[in-house]
Amino acid sequence: MRNKRIVGICLVLFLLGIVARPGRAQEGPKKLLVAHAGLISTHSSVWLAEDQGFYKKHGLDVTAVFTGSGSVTSQALVAGEAELASTSVGPTAGAVGAGADLAIFAGLIHILPYQFWVHSQVRQAADLKGKRVAISTFGSGSHLAAEVALQQLGLDPARDKIAIIQIGQQPERVAALLSGKIDATVLDPGFAQAAKDKGLTMMINMTKADTPYLNTVIVASRRYARENPQIMDSFLKGTVDGLAFLPNPANEKAVKKVLARRLRLTSPEDIQSMYDGTLEIHAKTKVPNAPAAGVQNMIDALLRVNPRMAKLKAADLVDNSFIERLDKSGYIQEAMKKSR
């Protein structure tokens, strides 16, 4: 299965013309394939940087490709099929725990950007005992969020016989919840209005938690970063530009266009809800670094499902050196002035 997935990414590379022909020097901007793990607006900074030409401004020709899951994204990085990724802490920690030479170089979402939604028949936490909770894939950001939500409700999946099942992306999880195939799931705030309109109930809003979390991160292999520091700087500058572009009211139309295309939204109501939710989950990210406390809390939340992470510490995952240099140079502060 792993080889098939990597081959699939290779085909994407070929079709997009990312793979250079042997013996032929590349001209123009440096081409990069950037993997992203989910159809969720936490990747908006990368999408905007690509679509608005911010990466090209810094000499990069970036193509962001949806891989389907965090684990496949990590595999693509390890295999060298993607140079960088916008992904979540869980799959990255799992890969590093298994020996992968990956590191987190930036943090784009400084909260846990999920809400815990249940079927209307679920009235209290005890009603979830023996029931089914849907996530995208094991080890993903949605998996971690589901674990955190159940912990906050005083529930333990093993003790309370709660089945955690893989369903797919958020639209599929909403459909499964409405059909009764599952009893609960986690959704980002952009889906809140649609879920409410369909009669679902939000039990926990994790975006309001005081506990520090770091959800969406920029990841690359340490070797790639060491051998390509200029590319890392350029990519992070472009991503900072995308992050700064997002909240400026003057850019609302352009942001909505990107969200609608990337997330396959059609109705004005759904697009507006997604736009509002996207602004909400990015609001706390002033400097896109990777705080150790937020990373460690994400690792700790997944210990039940991946005991190999017990010896893993945030310091094993994080390299803030590139972002720190950008911050000290004044680049981030200047870029963020444009967000107002």
Describe the structure.
There is one protein chain. The protein is an alpha/beta fold and 340 residues long. The protein has 2 domains: 2-111 and 213-337, D-Maltodextrin-Binding Protein, domain 2 (3-Layer(aba) Sandwich); 115-208, D-Maltodextrin-Binding Protein, domain 2 (3-Layer(aba) Sandwich). The protein has helices at residues 2-16, 44-51, 54-57, 70-79, 89-97, 141-152, 170-179, 192-197, 222-227, 229-245, 252-263, 268-282, 292-301, 321-329, 331-337; strands at 30-36, 60-66, 84-88, 102-107, 115-118, 132-135, 163-166, 184-187, 201-205, 216-221. The strands form 2 sheets. Strands 2-1-3-10-4 form a 5-stranded mixed sheet, with helices on both faces. α2 packs across α10. The longest helix has 17 residues, at 229-245. It is globular, with a radius of gyration of 19 Å. Residues 1-7 and 9-26 have low confidence and may be disordered.
Question: What's the short story on this structure?
Answer:
This protein is of the alpha/beta class and 340 residues long.
